[in-house]
Specification:
The structure holds two protein chains of two kinds. Chain A has helices at about 15-25, 35-40, 75-80, 85-90, 90-95, 105, 110-115, 125-130, 150, 225-235, 235-245, 260-275; strands spanning about 5-10, 25-30, 50, 60-65, 70, 135-140, 140-145, 150-155, 155-160, 165-170, 180-185, 195-205, 205-215, 225. By secondary structure, chain A is of the alpha+beta class. Chain A has three domains: about 5-50, 2-Layer Sandwich (Uridine Diphospho-n-acetylenolpyruvylglucosamine Reductase, domain 2), CATH 3.30.43; about 60-170, Uridine Diphospho-n-acetylenolpyruvylglucosamine Reductase, domain 3 (2-Layer Sandwich); about 180-275, 2-Layer Sandwich (Enolase-like, domain 1). In chain A, a hairpin with a 2-residue loop joins strand 6 and strand 7. Chain A is globular, with a radius of gyration of 19 Å. A five-stranded mixed sheet of chain B has the order 2-1-5-3-4. Chain B is built from six helices and five strands. Chain B is elongated and about 50 Å long. Chain B has helices at about 25-35, 80-85, 90-95, 105-120, 125-130, 145-155, and strands spanning about 5-10, 15-20, 55, 60, 75. At the A-B interface, strand 1, helix 2, strand 3 and helix 6 of A face strand 4, helix 4 and helix 5 of B.
Chain lengths: ~280, ~160
């Protein structure tokens, strides 16, 4: 299908984008457009104006500062995939990227767009949650930083206000003790996951500490499995898998029943636990 | 500073183009309807099938998930341009030779995607070929012959025999 008519404006600066958001009703920001334009083509949404932020300078850099890796909102998935900094300092994101859609989509889709769109079955929101990451937002009142825990509010709903622009995400840079794991089930390579798991932990002697298991495709937002995390920190993989019965209650969707998703979530946990035990590098 | 229609200037297959386009028009519709370049196909219109694949500023993209207005200043290449330039002549010959197409609807997208893979990875294995082509649906061939053709061209470009 074709989208309903809309107007188009190209913002040259962050201030201009925020100004346009403030003065125009039913406006949407256009970054890579790989989710937005699909939803417009299907007429799931019909904004009156798209504000193209692709021309705003300075939003496509990847920088390591103070033990954190900062990824600009306009960094394309393909750019991130090729980034040595991401491979070295954010190995969980590096592992997840090849699962995101297909090469032609990764050439255009942006990191910021994936986070802002907050599809419940998307990889990057779960990675951000697993990594205890944060999101930089600029709005009419200036800049603020939101923790991933507080960012994903509901189905396609985030802490972003109607006049906010997501400018960057930040994750703690991996250390020698960092352990990450990632796995998902999808009908076809690159499709949205039926169920997926992004995980991080810190090696602590022979065990693990700070275990964070972020599931996606099992609810309205990426979800932590906290009882399973506690069991895995004690190196009890079977107990962690059993704990998922309490942690997760996935609803049925078009891809699978809730029961099937829960089963798959358990299979993924065993795989990811194995990855966690691998040493880095 | 905003409008339902916008003027854009870009190059398409090396030729400078200036047109006024509706803001909501996708790049692939612009190419097909305004420029009569009908080699790029319109399939699902939401990014699943890959039939609309074109190259913008040197990388393949979904023509249905890219607005024409957003391509102001861009360098666009389509199957017509790449075919005329001879850039993918070996891929085209291999597809024909191995029956890697039947109806041909997916073929332009397959060729552009395969070309990008072979530019990035000179010796892809079959699994990597399948992975790179995962975003391009073919409903005729069952993919086997397509993977065969891409693999054969990789070998050929590396100095092997067909």
């Amino acid at each position: 299908m074709k989208p309903a008519p809309f107007a188009y404006a190209k913002a040259r600066s962050l201030d201009e984008a925020i100004g346009l958001l403030a003065t125009r009703s039913e406006a949407r920001l256009l970054a890579g457009g790989q989710s937005l334009l699909a939803s417009l083509n299907m007429r799931l949404s019909a904004p009156r104006i798209l504000i193209d932020i692709n021309g705003i300078a300075g939003l496509n850099t990847i920088v390591k500062t103070d033990g954190m890796l900062e990824i600009g909102a306009l960094v394309r998935h393909a750019q991130a995939e090729r980034s040595r900094d991401i491979a070295e300092h954010a190995p969980l994101i590096a592992r997840a990227l090849p699962h995101i859609a297909h090469p032609a989509i990764r050439n255009r889709g942006t990191i910021g767009g994936s986070i802002a769109f907050a599809d419940p079955a998307a990889e990057l929101p779960a990675c951000l949650l697993a990594l205890h990451g944060e999101i930089d937002v600029t709005g009419p009142k200036g800049k603020r930083t939101v923790k991933a825990e507080d960012f994903f509010k509901g189905l396609f709903e985030t802490a972003l206000g109607p006049q906010d622009v997501l400018t960057a995400i930040r994750v703690p840079a991996a250390t020698a003790q960092s352990r990450v794991g990632f796995a998902e089930f999808a009908m076809r390579r690159g499709d949205y996951a039926m169920v997926g798991l992004a995980a991080s932990a810190r090696a602590d002697g022979k065990g693990l500490a700070d275990v964070r298991l972020a599931y996606f495709g099992v609810g309205a937002t990426p979800l932590r499995a906290k009882q399973a995390e506690a069991a895995l920190a004690d190196s009890k993989v079977d107990a962690a898998i059993a704990a998922l019965d309490n942690d997760l209650d996935p609803p049925d969707d078009i891809q699978a029943t809730g029961a099937a998703k829960k089963h798959l979530a358990k299979v993924l946990l065993r795989r990811v636990a194995r990855q966690h035990l691998e040493t880095r590098g | 500073m905003s409008a339902q229609s916008c003027d854009i200037s870009l190059t398409v297959n090396g030729e400078p183009i200036s047109e006024t386009v509706e803001a909501r028009k996708s790049l692939v519709d612009f190419l097909r309807e305004d420029l009569s370049l009908t080699g790029s196909h319109v399939g699902c219109e939401h990014g699943f099938c890959g039939a609309c694949t074109v190259r913008v500023n040197g990388v393949i993209i979904r023509g249905c998930l890219t607005l024409a207005v957003a391509c102001d200043g861009a360098r666009v290449e389509t199957i017509e341009g790449m075919s005329d330039a001879g850039e993918i002549a070996d891929l085209q010959a291999a597809f024909e030779q191995r029956n890697a197409l039947q109806c041909g609807f997916c073929t332009p997208g397959m060729l552009l995607t395969a070309q990008e893979l072979l530019q990035q990875n000179k010796t892809p294995n079959r699994e990597q070929i399948r992975e790179y082509l995962s975003g391009n649906y073919c409903r005729c061939t069952g993919y086997q012959a397509i993977v065969d053709a891409v693999e054969a061209v990789a070998q050929l470009r590396n100095g092997g025999k067909r």
